[in-house]
Amino acid sequence: MLIDSHAHLEMPEFRRDLNEVLRRAKDSGVEYIFTVGTEKKDWRRALEIAQAHSSVYAILGVHPHNAKEIDEETYPVLTELCKHEKVRAYGEIGLDFFRNHSPREVQLKRFREQIQLAKELKLPIVVHDREAHLETLESLKSENAWENGGVIHCFSGDEKMAKACIDMGFYISIPGSITYKNAGPFHEMVKRLPLDSLLVETDAPFLTPVPFRGKRNEPSYVRYTAEKVAEIKKVAFEQVAEVTTRNALKVFRLNVGKE
Predict the structure, then answer these.
(1) Of all helices (H) and strands (E), which one includes residue 96?
(2) What is the pLDDT of residues 194-232, one digit of tens each?
(3) Which domain covers residue 113, as residue numbers?
């Protein structure tokens, strides 16, 4: 069994063939998928997909790209949606100093606010960090985000940052880019990180792994990421699948025996 810990099934790329995408995921051994609604227009769609499919759960929040769009209605609406039993985490939230679609000071303010909102909701957080490693770590520490726990999605920091996040109770999520030819330094880091601190994800429709790079990504392809992790760590694929699945169930507080 595998879990795709981060996808975007609510995006337009999946409108036409969502049922087929979910069927292929099931056929590939992907038991659960966490779909992430990152802005107001996507939240209800993500939750509707989760409600309609037993294999899908939702994660809702405001992406750093959209931090500047937060207004007085945003948090009340999010708070109500996040109370639904199929919402298992708050996110993705964080900092993106690569694109800078929102001013940096706004991103920082909204990131810290949302960490606190997630605490009130008693939800783990899913963190987006791109070219903002130091500021992300400082925000997590200053807001006592260890109380939330959660996932550093699509991890792109160094080993020191990874270990600091793990020490705060966060899991490191590995995307399909680990299969790319230029991912050598990433391989070395993953080799040294404990398997019981890792998740695997697609970030579909983005970051499609080899051998499908250049095409739309989808949850069934998370298998290729897990296979690469197994190769790098010199362990059986089945072990990676089992441990990353257990990790995802734990961080998202999902008791499948009672579902």
Answers:
(1) strand 87-96
(2) 999 999 999 999 999 999 999 999 999 999 999 999 999
(3) 2-258
Q: Is the pTM of this model over 0.70?
A: yes
Provide the terminal-to-terminal Cα distance of the chain, rounded to the nearest Å. 16
User: In CATH, what number is assigned to the domain containing residue 137?
Assistant: 3.20.20.140
Give the count of beta carbons closer than 10 Å to the beta carbon of residue 226.
Answer: 27
Tell me if the bond preceding 185 is cis, omega within 30° of 0: no
Helices (H) and strands (E) in the chain, counts: 9, 8
Residue 24 CB neighbours (<10 A) = 15
53's CB contacts (< 8 A; 6+ apart) are 22
Residues 6+ apart with CB under 8 A from 94: 64, 107, 111, 127, 128, 129, 132, 136
Looking at the structure of the chain, the number of domains it has is: 1
The CA distance from 126 to 75, in Å, is: 17
Contact 79, 113 (CB under 8 A): no
| Structure tokens that stand for 116 in this block | 């606190």
- CB-based contact 230:199 (threshold 8 Å): no
Amino acid at 58: A
CA-to-CA distance for 205 and 37, rounded, in angstroms?
13
Give me the pLDDT at residue 255, please: 87
